[in-house]
Specification:
Blueprint: H1 2-12, H2 16-19, H3 30-49, H4 54-82, H5 93-101, H6 104-115, H7 117-128
Helix pairs in contact: 3-4, 3-5, 4-7, 6-7
Length: about 140
């Protein structure tokens, strides 16, 4: 009887894939994808600053650098094809970034980097990638 009750409880709880909000059915415009890129950039940076440990923050930085670099390459190619010379971040981005940088976690992050060379290297790679700038790719 206990097994039947446990099975019913498991069947009644939604799976993680079922509980997420559905993605929009219409594709985003280029401006929408740019806005989403900057929102994701802030979310990744927030995850890094609020990570519970240095190894987790290092892994998050490495993943964010790779994934955002790939997305940026695609967006830059799209912007170049559209003939867009410059792309400004959404107007809400700068205040949100400033607010994030004022948090105690962000303020303590430099100390965390000094104590952990792997974290410092991952953060330097993230900064050097220039992921906060989204300009069309230059011709080579």
């Amino acid at each position: 009887m206990r097994y039947l009750l446990a099975l019913l409880l498991l069947a009644a709880t939604p799976l993680a894939a079922q509980s997420k909000t559905p993605l929009p059915t219409t594709p985003l415009t280029t401006a929408g994808r740019v806005t989403q890129y900057y929102q994701d950039y802030l979310a990744r940076l927030r995850e890094v600053y609020f990570a519970t440990g240095d190894p987790r923050a290092t892994a998050l930085l490495s993943t964010a650098t790779e994934e955002l670099s790939a997305r940026r390459r695609g967006l830059r190619a799209e912007l170049k094809a559209a003939g867009t010379a410059t792309v400004a971040p959404p107007p809400t981005w700068a205040p949100e970034l400033a607010e994030l940088l004022k948090t105690p976690q962000a303020a303590k992050f430099a100390d965390r980097c000094r104590r952990n060379p792997a974290l410092e290297t991952a953060y330097q790679r993230f900064v050097d990638a220039g992921l906060d700038k989204l300009t069309p790719a230059e011709s080579r």
